Structure formats: C-alpha cells, structure tokens
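Listing 4. Sequential folding, example run.
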Amino acid sequence: MARLTIILLLISLFVASCKSSEKAIEPPPEVENFYNLGEGIEKDQAIEDWLTEFREIYEREIGRTIAIANGPLVLGKPESPLGNLAADMLRYRAMHEYQRFVHVGLLNMEGFQIEFSEGNITLGDLYEFMPYNNTLVVLEMDGEHVRELADEIAGKGGAPLSGMRMTIVNDQASSVLIDSESIDPEGTYLVATSSYLADGNGDFPSLGNGNTRYDYPVLIRDIFIDYMRSRREFHPVEDLRIRSR
C-alpha cells in the first residue's frame, strides 16, 4: 500500500506541476530546435479522465485514518511525547530487522515537519510528518563512542531517544544508563538511527565511529506507518528518559 501511495503521490504532484506551468520557457542558447509545450496545448479529455481516477484513489488513500492520538503528540526538549514515540518505533523495528536486541534508537527532531493534535492521524499526516526518504541503519559501536554520543545528545539539550536514560548537567550527560546498566567502555552496543544521521549529517558525529554498519531498505516513514497501523491508539508519554537540571 505504501508503494501505491508513493506512486499516486508522484502522479498528483506531476499533474499539479503541469497545471501550474504556464510561464513560457526560454530555450538554451545552444539548442537549435526548441518546442515549448506550455502554450496552446488543449487538454486531452481521455487523459484527464484517466488521471481523475488516480486522483480519487490518491485522495482516498492519503485521507485514510491510520491511528488515533488520545492527546496531543508534540515535540520538545529534553524529551517529548512525539520524540519518545518516534525513537521507540525506530528501535523496535530495528530489532525486528536485525533479529537481535538493539540498545539505542536515535533520531533528529529537525527531521520532523509537524506535530499531531488529539484525534485522527491520517496517512497524509505521516507523509507530512516525515517527507524525506531516509532509511533504517543499525550501527555497531563501542561503549566509549556511545558515551560520546550521550554527551552530544546532552549538548543539544536532548533528542528523540530510546533505550538510553540520562540526566543533562551543564550540557553534559550524567548518570547514563543503557538497559538499566552503566555504559561499559569496552562493551559493544547496537544503535538504530536514520541513514541521514549515519551519513554524517546532523549534530551526532560519534555515529561515524561505528565499527560495523547495517543498512536496511526500510523507509523511516514506513516504519512509522506500519507501527501506527498495528497499534491504532496512542497516548502521550514522557517517562523521564532524559532529565535536565
């Protein structure tokens, strides 16, 4: 269904762009024969009728209710209901894909474009929430670099985080726990994140120190869609996984 929706979305955007392309395009100077298709072209009713069917399917699917929020799902720092939910969804899916326990899930709040009011959450809402085609990545990291990652999260005042608990003191991470235990500098930890962050974007350079990287062709957006479809109802939750003092 996600692939169908993407196809329909592209068709819709293409149709909309065609309708808005009224300005004549000047030919590049090196092109001898240039044909401007934006002027004087009458609509082909057969094509219009064919596209209308796809528009109707698109509008029906994009407006379909995926889940219900039993309270506002908002973003904030050091933690927030929406950030916690997004990081949990990511980590749980990573465990399913990797078939092992994944210690930490981390995303960047700047990648989320909207928040959710109380009530229905539609497929269109989730496309707007996560419009980027970033994919799931699991990184194998040693404890020393995971501790550095905790400090980077603290330096940002918090982030969408799952599996790790900490207190932020003077922009540094204190009392850091993973799976209820202190970080072992010699230990190995699995960190789920997005391809965007794993590729060196954002403010978490420690992610580049992973010993091994596992890429999965699963869109972060589809992770959210699948998870919300399976659970259906969500309550805003803040569990003090990140404290600030």
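-- end of first protein; second protein begins --
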Amino acid sequence: MKPTLLLCALLLLAVGASAQRPSDRALIAKADKLIIVTTPEWNSVKGRLVRYEKRGGHWEQLGGPVEIVVGKNGMGWTPALPPEKDAPVKREGDGRSPAGVFRLTQTFGFADSLPVAKDYLPLTPAIECVDDVKSKHYAHIVDRSEVPVDWNSSEKMREISLYKWGVVVPYNMSDTKSGAGSCIFLHIRPASGNGTAGCTAMPEGNIEEIVRWIGKGAVLVQMPEVEYANMKTKLGTP
C-alpha cells in the first residue's frame, strides 16, 4: 500500500474508533444499572461478573463477584470495529462470546410472566432463536407460529433447560451481519462447568436475580481484563 493510502486508512480507523467509544460512553452514562464481565485473557473460559447501580451519580457495587463461564474458546471482538488487529473476532460457530458494550432490556424464561421485568419473554414451544445464516431471521428470536419458516437450524429455546432464566445480549440483532454470530444470552451455567457455545453463563440463583433486577434495562460491558483496564476510563465505568 502506498504511504498516502496507508495514512488515509489509518485516519479512517481512528475516526471510526473515536466514533464508537463516545457512543458506548453515552450509553453507559444514561444507564443506572451496569454489569461488568471480565476474563483473564482472550482464550479464557472462566471469569467473573460484577453488578453496579448508579446512586448519587456514582457507581456502587452490588454484592461480590460471581463466577461465570463464557464461550468454550473465550471471547472475540464484535466484527464491526475490532480495536486490536491481532485480537480474535467473533464469528458464527466459533465458540467465542462477543466482547463489547451491550444494552440489555429483554429477559426470558420458563415462567408464564414476570411483572418486575419490563420486557420479559415467556418461552413457549414455538419460540426459537435462528442460527441459520441463510435465513432472513438469522440472529433473531422468533415465534415460528407467526412467521414463515425459512431456516434449517435454530435453538428451540423452551427445550434448553439452561434457558429457564436468561437475558438477551443484543449482539448482531441490529444491522445483522450474516455469519457474525447469533443467539447470545446470559443464562444458567452448565452443570459440567464447561464453556458455552458463545453465551455467558452463571449459577441459576445469580441469573434469576439478574433477570428480576434488570427492570427497565442495564448495560453489559464484557471483555478480557487487560482490555477493560485500558478502556474503562474512556467508558466511564468503575
């Protein structure tokens, strides 16, 4: 690449990065509930989750850290703008959880209703999350009784016991990219303690508490410890 073209490319990346971080910071600044998930390294499966609430303009921690597992192969940046060129990038079927900042509002579970949750989805046998990259419903949760079925692969959510309680992580649900990954949730941890296909999982009591606590919504910040330490000042997080 010629020097001039290389400089232009670097400038475009810089502009893109500066555009994304203030957006994340604004999202966090408006929130009153915050979940921080970190792991030791990109390929780590085990990590911890800490919850915060904003009180008097300051973030206050709620309880102690919760042990969690992420994808069986660790984490990967969202593909839109990986902040590090050598870091892994999330793809469909890669066994990685997405790293980034996400607004959480929708919860789900086996209970027929949950008045304390603003946007609770009771899982019926017809509710599925589509992971077929060829489907127009790819990366979305649908009621198969209400839409034309154009997929060959999906998660039948009611049949998955780990989804008794859960929170939708809206990764790749807006401006969906085919093959970038789908069906990302916070949910109950497998009994084996192993990593997931790409979700973040924890003990049942902890995820149930989070489902009931979220209310109008919360923001999830999820990434390896070093990346979080480098970014938390810009993000305005604890």
